[in-house]
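As a next step, we paired sequence with structure tokens, yielding the entry below.
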Amino acid sequence: MVAWSGDDIAGLRVANVTDDEMAEIRSVMSKWNARIGKNAKRSLYYDTEQSFRDLGIALPPQLKRAKTVLGWAMQAVRKPAMRTQFEGLRLPGSSDPLELGEVLSRNSFALEFGQAVVSAYTHGVSLVTVGKGGPGEVPVQIQAHSAETAAASWDRRNRRVKSAVTISDTREERPTEFVAYLDDVVLWCRKEPGGKWSAERIENPVGRSLVVPVLNDPQLRRPFGRSRLTNAVMELNDMAVRAYVRMEGNAEFYSSPQIALMGVDEAAFGDGMGESQKFKLAMERLLAMTKDQDGDKPVLTQLQQASMAPHSDMLRTIAAAFSAETAIPVSSLGVIHDQPASAEAIRAAEHDLLVDVTYHNKHVHAASVREIATLAAMVRDDLSAPPAEAWKLSARFADPEFRSMSAQADATQKLASGMDEIG
């Protein structure tokens, strides 16, 4: 995990940087450092690499050492993110809005923005930077950055990023190169072999930071949004893992049921029955036992097994709570909750998720795409003000419902017939 201490940030000195710029860099770096632990934790849950959390009550030591993971947290991010698929820009009267088609294509913008959305849903925010390309590169560079390696401060009055820092390189989990984006300059800061920092100044004629946030659930008190992996989601994921571990332990007992052998002297087992003898006794197809000296024969009884049903019921309960928290249908979590659903029932189960995705595509992500496109045009043309028609620009996303062609055709036909009646 990349990290600096508070003392490292407070003592940071960079040559060729003014005091005011240095103060802003330290402020943004402190924000990044304060969140790095929480962001790394959410990355572990998304990557299904979180450690197993045992309550220390009933699990035997063997199961505590088991490597058991569950991908529900990843589904909480990917399910809505995959329904945000950028399809292009729209500007009335233009087939190539702001002549950005080539710029977006050469930056693989649909893929880059999709990755930014996944990162934003994981950590609450990701940052997209816009800048001039170097020799042999795309004339305008559009790059997304995870919150694990970037941070920003918010200009509430202008509703945009005030300043930002992106970490470009590290050594031994400590930054050795970062870029600071300020209103009038971009500072490329590198750590020299001797340990001192220096900066290359790149003038910024646009007059604002060249950074745009991609957000999940922005709020007045949280302008940089919040992660879909809330504390409740992570705790429910842990509960589900423990339920699966208990089921695994119960299944082991099903594989080798407990047997009671009555009427046999303890001395018959010598110094005690070893693990291999117990397993052999459980697995033998034919058992031969003789009567004792009194003529009594041993009694072999198989004890009744504990039911798996309570574990399955608890897993369904956890899945229902997880579904309520994330709007992910229970069936998408691999839990059989009901009879196979009809198309209408499936749509009803996805209704809350579709409402959330539609809101974000229309009001959150569309605004980010419009701002990125505007900055790209300004950087390309060395403008200090947005193009006059930039406010008319809008983003197109694929239908998050992914309706079939027949359903789309049916809806179009009904709309067409309705228009004839209006006319």
Remarks:
- The radius of gyration is 30 Å.
- The longest helix spans residues 351-381.
- The first strand starts at residue 14 and ends at 15.
- The CA atoms of residues 246 and 278 lie 23 Å apart.
